[in-house]
Amino acid sequence: MRNRYSVFSLIKNALSYHENWQRAWKDPTPKKEYDAVIVGGGGHGLATAYYLAKKHNMNNIAVVEKGWIGGGNTGRNTTIIRSNYLWDASAGLYDHALKIWEGLSQELNYNVMFSQRGVMNLAHNLQDVRDLKRRTHANRLNGIDAVYLSTEEVKKFCPIINTSPDIRYPVLGGTLQRRAGTARHDAVAWGYARGADAMGVDIIQNCEVKGIKRNGDSVEGIETTKGFIKTKKVGVVAAGHSSVIANMAGLRLPLESKPLQALVSEPVKPIIDTVVMSNAVHAYVSQSDKGELVIGAGTDDYVSYTQKGSHQIVEGTLNAILELYPIFSRMRMLRQWGGIVDICPDASPILSKTSIKGLYFNCGWGTGGFKATPGSGDLFAHTIANDEPHKLNAAFNLNRFVSGDLVDEHGAAAVAH
Amino acid sequence: MFLINCPYCGERDQQEFKAGGEAHIERPKQPTELSDDEWAEYLFMRKNIKGVQFERWNHAHGCRKWFNMVRDTSNDEIKAIYKMGEKPPAQ
């Protein structure tokens, strides 16, 4: 039985100097067989396990993770959450996630620090203005809150932005989604892990998948560094390493894995109370609760699994940040890191069955998967449990690359995430 | 970030180059005969290898010529560079 977190449990544990908190999840050794195994213990994988147990009564399942949970892209992203996507399919997918975010802390009894501080997207040229206006209209037709802001309104909403007309890429306007915001990325992984564990899910860390055993066209189990695990259903949620796992099953995916970088500054007092994104100059910034500026840079254009990335990418982003926010010119950056993102040709994810029975892939989230974590888990759990996609992820199947029915979110919607 | 030895210009910063993706993907000889599955394989499916991969690069801010590279994507170490049309080195 899992103890609930509350102000009373906080007081009680304070009396014993916080030395007797119950473990948030167990550290089990893998059983010989499970009804389903999720490969990848990031936010999406843990959410998938949580909803499989909660909504589909699949409790004899495991999550296997090669490192520690939440140690991959879940702990490396810039935590932006929004749903203002252009196309109907994307709007449905991302807004489904946003609606779950709104009640997630209560549901998990774990504070994921979801903060609806708004996300503003800036326009820097006439095509940006046309695109963002079009996207605002599309969002509103899909029931997603969106407003278009003039330059003056941008300045009023975020006064530290340089809206002078003589900068290299002047701010001509912007959009605002007020329901959007940020959350604490680690807490999302930990909250889902704790919730899944309480329902009997085995979370097995330091367990790397080495092979997928097939019998003809169906899955029989997985080879791991902790031995063979028999299972008829394998859900792969391995982000940048999806192609590596696919290769074990003899599949190829339409993915390229590239380093995406982010960086944070030294902590300072509150200066920016929203998230501002600028796709044209590729700079986006928010401020963490610790006070650090959280800045997202772009991807390198070559395939790499090094979790590093090139210096000039960071330099380009910081040039743009300084032009837009001259007030940051004397800030010192604290840390910089990279994560490996799996990018689809149409910049939309894959939540899909495959040609192999019992093998499912949840990948291709590219540079913007964090925001979708709860929705992705919910819909992928549905897909695995029913062996059929939910109507909200039906468009995100692998077969779209054969039929040509792509969900092209590249140019028209926000490129940066 | 690394140095690339352009076969035409010599060693230059990677910043001068543009990555062109997986190499040796042959254009279908009979495009009209291809099924949708085969088109998808040709257009979209990629090996995306973690390890030694064959790629095309372009010296975009230099001689603007294309060439091939053998690179280990797990540590960005370049194993070999060879010109377009040349046979890839045996691995």
Describe the structure.
The complex is a heterodimer of chains A (417) and B (91). With 417 residues, chain A is an alpha/beta fold. Chain A contains eleven helices and 20 strands. Chain A has an eight-stranded mixed sheet. Chain A has a six-stranded mixed sheet with strand order 9-3-2-13-20-19. In chain A, a hairpin with a 5-residue loop joins strand 16 and strand 17. In chain A, helix 2 (43-56) packs parallel to helix 7 (185-198). The relative contact order of chain B is 0.25. The model of chain B has no long low-confidence stretch (mean pLDDT 95). The chains are: A alpha/beta (417), B mainly beta (91). Chain A binds chain B through residues 241, 243-244, 247, 252-257, 300-306, 308-312, 342, 345, 401-404, and chain B through 1, 14-15, 18-19, 21, 36-37, 39-41, 43-50, 53, 55, 71, 73-76.
What does the secondary structure layout of this molecule look like, with pairings?
The complex is a heterodimer of chains A (417) and B (91).
Chain A lengths: L6 H9 L17 E2 L1 E4 L3 H14 L4 E4 L15 E2 L6 H14 L2 H5 L10 E5 L2 H16 L5 E3 L1 H7 L15 E5 L3 E2 L2 H14 L3 E3 L4 E7 L2 E7 L2 E5 L2 E3 L5 H7 L7 E10 L9 E4 L4 E5 L5 E7 L11 H14 L8 E11 L6 E4 L5 E5 L9 H14 L13 H4 L14
Helix pairs in contact in A: 2-7, 2-10, 3-10
Chain B lengths: L2 E4 L3 E4 L4 E5 L13 H8 L8 E7 L7 E7 L4 E7 L8
Antiparallel strand pairs in B: 1-2, 3-4, 4-5, 5-6
